[in-house]
């Protein structure tokens, strides 16, 4: 079976084209946290990628206009949390501008290197930031994994078509 591409309906590269295409891409949902000058910061990320096994490294993107960027721009360590399907509200809280992300509804604790660690996640990592690479209005952060715990239970939370979703059997 051969798929054909209709070039008459294609569009020029725009921010909206990129958003429209990536709405069709299902992605896992993570929350990135760090310790800022004024306390903990964090944001929801769907751009988390494994980069290297030796040494263990990952990357994520962050917008330079976001409220968490000033802390991520200078911190030495970040927390990476893989969310479960039971954490849609937590994902929404960390994605919402102006939300009290570390308020009473968010269960968390101080972890190694002062990194805020969220409770009840599928897995978490503490990482050392090794680079921040300019990429348009974002930065790609490369981080070396120092320690973590993959022992959470449940199924992963996904982001697709602009919404948080669950896996279906």
TrEMBL record:
Gene Ontology molecular functions: oxidoreductase activity
Assigned EC number: 1.-.-.-
Keyword set, alphabetical order: Oxidoreductase
Domain Flavin reductase like: 22-166
Pfam families according to UniProt: Flavin_Reduct
InterPro entries documented for this protein: Flavin_Rdtase-like_dom, NADH-dep_flavin_reductase, Split_barrel_FMN-bd
The name this protein goes by in its record: Flavin reductase family protein
């Amino acid at each position: 079976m051969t798929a054909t591409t209709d070039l008459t309906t294609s569009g020029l590269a725009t921010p909206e084209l990129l958003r429209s295409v990536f709405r069709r891409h299902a992605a896992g949902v993570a929350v990135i946290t760090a310790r800022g000058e004024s306390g903990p910061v964090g944001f929801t990320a769907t751009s988390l990628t494994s980069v290297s096994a030796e040494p263990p490294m990952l990357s994520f993107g962050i917008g330079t206009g976001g409220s968490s960027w000033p802390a991520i721009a200078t911190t030495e360590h970040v927390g990476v949390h893989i969310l479960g399907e039971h954490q849609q509200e937590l994902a929404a809280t960390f994605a919402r501008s102006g939300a009290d992300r570390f308020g009473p509804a968010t269960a968390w604790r101080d972890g190694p290197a002062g990194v805020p660690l969220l409770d009840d996640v599928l897995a978490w990592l503490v990482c050392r930031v090794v680079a921040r690479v300019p990429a348009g209005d974002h930065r790609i952060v490369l981080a070396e994994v120092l320690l973590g715990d993959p022992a959470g239970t449940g199924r992963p939370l996904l982001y697709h078509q602009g919404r948080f979703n669950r896996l279906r059997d």
